Amino acid sequence: ETGVTQSPTHLIKTRGQQVTLRCSSQSGHNTVSWYQQALGQGPQFIFQYYREEENGRGNFPPRFSGLQFPNYSSELNVNALELDDSALYLCASSLARGQGYGYTFGSGTRLTVV
Amino acid sequence: AQRVTQPEKLLSVFKGAPVELKCNYSYSGSPELFWYVQYSRQRLQLLLRHISRESIKGFTADLNKGETSFHLKKPFAQEEDSAMYYCAAGAGSYQLTFGKGTKLSVIP
After folding, report:
1. Chain A within 8 Å of B4 (Cβ-Cβ)?
2. In 3-state terms, what secondary structure has residue A28?
3. b/e for B20-58, b at 16 or more Cβ within 10 A?
4. Dihedral angle computed from the Cα positions of residues A100, A102, A103 and A104, in that order, rounded to the nearest 10 degrees
5. How far is it, in rounded angstroms, from Cα B30 to Cα B26?
6. Which of A99, A101, B28, B80 has its CA 20 to 30 A from that of A50?
7. pLDDT band at A106; cut points 50, 70, 90
8. Chain B residue numbers touching A55 (CB-CB < 8 A)
9. Is any Cβ of chain A less than 8 angstroms from the Cβ of B95?
C-alpha cells in the first residue's frame, strides 16, 4: 500500500506566474483535499475533490483551482501568484468525503514566490 | 466563524511529567474533533479522534461540549513525544479547521 505522494517537493516561482502542484492519493482513497500551511500557522482548507468533482471550497480566490483524475490523483493550480502564496501546500486523501475517517497527508510542496 | 484555538505555541515538560495540550473550539453544530501530530521530518498524521474514544501512544482526549474543549493528555511524557501537535475540528462533509499548533518539547 502506498501513501500520499506530492510533487515537486520544492518550487520557486516569480510573482504573476502560474504553478501546478501534483498529488497521488493513497491506494483505495477516492477523496483528495488540499490545504495551505503558511509559516507558523495550521493548515488551511483550500478545496476537496471527490470522484473528479469539487466537493467543497474554503476561503480562497478563484485563481486557486484544481482537478481530480479518474485514478483519484489531483492537481492544484494557482494563477497570478502573489508573494502571500508562499507556503507549504499539503495534499490529503481519505476513504470517504466525510473527515471522520481521517486524512492521510502527503509531505507537501514548499512553494516560494519571489 | 469556525475557529480552533491552541493557546500555547510551545510547551516544555520534563520526561515522566504529565502533559496537557489545550484546544478550544468555536463551531456551529456538533463538530468532530481530532488531534494530528507531526514528528520531526515526518508528515502530518492522525493521532486520535474523539468519536473512537481510543488511547494512542498513551494519549487521550476528552471532548467537553460545555467548555468546548478537547484537551490532549498523557500521564507520563516520553522523549519521543516531542513533536508539533495540531487540534482540528470538522462538521459536514469536507473541511477541517486546524489550530495553529503547539510544539511539545520533552526535556530528558
Report:
1. yes
2. coil
3. ebbbbbebeeebbbbbbbbeeeebbebbbbbeeeeeeee
4. -160
5. 10
6. B28
7. very high
8. 93-94
9. yes
The β-bridge partners of B62 are B71
Give residue-wise pLDDT tens across range B28-70: 878 889 999 999 989 999 998 887 777 889 999 988 989 999 9
Alpha-carbon distances, residue A36 vs A44, B5, B51, B85 (angstroms): 5, 18, 26, 17
Query: DSSP label at B5?
Result: E
First-to-last CA distance in chain B? 40
Q: Tell whether the model's pLDDT for residue A99 goes beyond 60.
A: no
What residue in B sits closest to A37 (Cα-Cα)? B100
CA distance A44 to chain B (A): 7
The residue to which cell 480552533 is assigned: B4
**Which pLDDT score, from 0 to 100, does residue B49 have?**
86
Query: Cβ contacts (< 8 Å) between B32 and chain A: which residues?
Result: 99-100
* Cβ-defined contact of B95 to A40 (cutoff 8 Å): no
A58 neighbourhood in chain B, CB within 8 Å: 95
Question: Which of A99, A101, A107 to probe by mutation at the B interface, max B CB count within 10 Å?
Answer: A99
CB B81 within 8 A of CB B104: yes
